[in-house]
Amino acid sequence: MVSIILPTYNEAENIQIIIPLIFSVLARHGMGGEVVVVDDNSPDGTGEAAKRMAEIYPVKLLVRKDERGISSAVIRGMELATNEIIVVMDADLSHPVEKIPDLVRPIAEEKVDMVVGSRYVGGGHTQDWGWARRVISRSAGFLASGLTNMTDPTTGFMAIRKTALDGIQLDPIGWKIVLEVAVKSELAFSEVPIAFEGRQTGESKLTFRVQLDYFRHLWRLYCHRFSTLKQLFKFCVVGASGLFIDTAVLVFLVELLSFDPRMAAPFAFLGAATWNYHWDRIYAFNIRAGITTSRNYLYFLLISSLGLCVRIGVMHALITAITFRPRFFYILASILGIAIATLCNFTLAKYFVFRFKDDPKNHRQ
User: What's the whole-model pTM score?
Assistant: First the structure.
């Protein structure tokens, strides 16, 4: 038994074609099942068309009025599905219905818990695509290559064992539910080649906003897979704000008090480091207020001083090596030194200064 989930919006014509096709394929292969249609209150009468299909076939219908999006529709469909094996596919006839048994069989035979229909594995292909659509698809897949070795991570056609998702929090943006499931579940999967057909009726959902949502989704998944990446980004945001303080102190000491830039750098560093410590603690590493701060502050200054040495070394090398220097060249030299020292500072701060985050023994005044 299998549950096929069809997320829909303005697919009134297609829904009347694909549902009979699905049950025809299931019958030919001796498979029972149901179709779960989750419609986002389509104005073209998709919900009404699905109701008519439900009078003939085992179809469940959920019409959502306060929620939108393909991925969230699939999640709601999973909640309504009564069978152990779930198939997710588009309702616009772009995914080959005849491939459903090929996706379901490896799961039924308990070989894997997830099977994906791929356009790019051997034997798969797309039809009626121009070069622009091919470039977009391939580029989107390349951007996800750091998350999965799936040949077609932007596919929307998959089968999965429902219980394999127990305890996994799915929270996708946009329409890439397959990528979300693959990354967060980390399930072993196999791929089945498919021929991806162009839409025959209705309008494509591949809008500019959908493409922006994909980038947002990728960022969230990369942060999920590589949690340090998100911390590094926040660390750099804090560092950028501290750069203004550092530069202001540096310019003040050099321009008004005639300090040598290399001598002024430690004072600028101290002001910026104090600022950065406060915000790194709260924003980048999410340390609770109960953790002792005086000791960590001293650790932070000590470790950041190593970055200061790198910075001064870079400044000295640039100032002495370049004969012709504009008046404010020292500012550029300082910024370059800070940039080179940032990764060193982040690594040491993460693993030495703020490592006490999850240790209850350190949650004290």
Answer: 0.68
